[in-house]
Amino acid sequence: MTAPLLQAEIDIDAPVSRVWSLIADLGNMPRWSPQCRLMKALGEVRPGTRTINLNRRNRLFWPTTSTITEFIPERKLAFRVNANNTVWSYELEPTATGTRVVETRHAENGVKAVSNMTVNAVMGGVQSFERELVAGMNMSLARIKAAAEG
């Protein structure tokens, strides 16, 4: 059974504008995510823009496409992965010392059955894969923090 919500957050000692510039540049996604190897926008990044993505887990590579669902400068970037209907988002909030970033994977309407079957067959099952996704979110946020503060 797919969890409806996976989430991680981090506080970064850098202004929202600096953090946003790192997150909003989709070409940076492979720098942050341990699974993403490519995220390329097909046009200007705004709601409705499609992206081509390449993911990797160990020796397994798989392409996906996604659609930007929200792009609110210095506040929120969200995209829907078309293969499984999950929505990934980065929300930024100013804090007294910088920026809080919350990364979320939303699957409130579940994940497409074919996606769950693939995860169960090839990736060790949905629960272990989702634990891996949360670990990856924490790693991504730590890498964004290091870049923003460095």
Automatic annotation (TrEMBL):
InterPro entries: Polyketide_cyclase/dehydratase, START-like_dom_sf
Transmembrane segments: none
Pfam family, one: Polyketide_cyc2
CDD domains linked to this entry: SRPBCC (cd07812)
Name of the featured protein: Polyketide cyclase
